[in-house]
Amino acid sequence: MSSHRTVVLGIGNILNSDEGIGVYAVWEMQERHRRTHRYPGIEIVDGGTLGMRLLPYVEEATHLILLDAVDAGAPPGALVELRGEDIPLYTGIKLSMHQVTFQEVLGVALARGHLPSHLHLIGMQPISLRIGVGPSPQARQVIPQMIARVERVLNAWGVWHPPAVGEDSTAEPREATYELQDIL
Fold first, then answer.
1. Range 66-92 average pLDDT
2. What is the DSSP string of 99-122?
3. What is the domain partition of the chain in residue ranges?
4. Looking at residues 96-111, what average pLDDT do you find?
5. How far are the Cα atoms of 55, 58, 139, 144, 154 from residue 41, in angstroms, in the given order?
6. What is the model's pLDDT at position 177?
7. Using CB atoms within 10 A of its CB, is residue 121 exposed (0-12), middle (13-18) or buried (19+)?
8. Cα atoms found within 13 Å of the Cα of residue 108, Cβ hemisphere only
9. CA distance 61 to 163
10. How far is CA 60 from the centre of its chain?
11. Using CA atoms, how far apart are residues 119 and 122, in angstroms rounded to an integer?
12. Could you tell me which CATH number the domain at 6-183 has?
């Protein structure tokens, strides 16, 4: 059996509302894991706006899912998925407000021969990019769908399987709140 390292990496700026959707989604995944141990063997990482400092996560992963806000010209709140070579590297296609830096991370990993063999982007077309902590109310409602897509990809890759019925309490929704003092 081959060794693998699976990383779910949320990126974005939480100070610009929906631009931080990837980070908010991984926070929810981390909370689910703390409560129920839902994601054994999966690294769930808040990458924020760390840019090149995320290169080790990218290069050392065999399976990498990126969660981010993307500007793909889709309707606000729409989820967008790209796989492997469909994810733009060093191109003029601007998907994210901070993407130039993260595109460079992926480009450097590719140039060094360490781009993960399994790479998947799940993004959301922003609804609001206003200055303020926390996703817009509409974006908050998209987070469970984003996480469901992460789980579908992890399952398809064979690196994670959903818990048996009754083993997980994530079915009961809870209202997430994001306060600046919680973040700092």
1. 87
2. HHHHHHHHHHHHHTT---SEEEEE
3. 6-183
4. 75
5. 20, 16, 28, 21, 11
6. 52
7. buried
8. 16
9. 23
10. 17
11. 10
12. 3.40.50.1450
Query: In the predicted model, is pLDDT for residue 44 greater than 90?
Result: yes
139: its two tokens: 């974006």
Instruction: State the amino acid at position 146 in one-letter form.
Output: M
What's the maximum distance between 2 C-alpha atoms anywhere in the chain? 47
Kindly state the tokens that stand for 130.
């206003």
Give the tens place of pLDDT for each residue, 114-171.
Answer: 999 999 999 999 999 999 999 999 999 999 999 999 999 999 999 999 988 776 545 4
pLDDT (tens digit per residue) in 138-154 = 999 999 999 999 999 99
Q: CA dist 152 to 23, 100, 119, Å? A: 19, 28, 14
Encoded tokens for 131: 């200055």
Q: Are strands 79-83 and 118-124 parallel, antiparallel or unpaired?
A: antiparallel
- In terms of Cβ atoms closer than 10 Å to its own Cβ (0-12, 13-18, 19+), residue 12 is buried
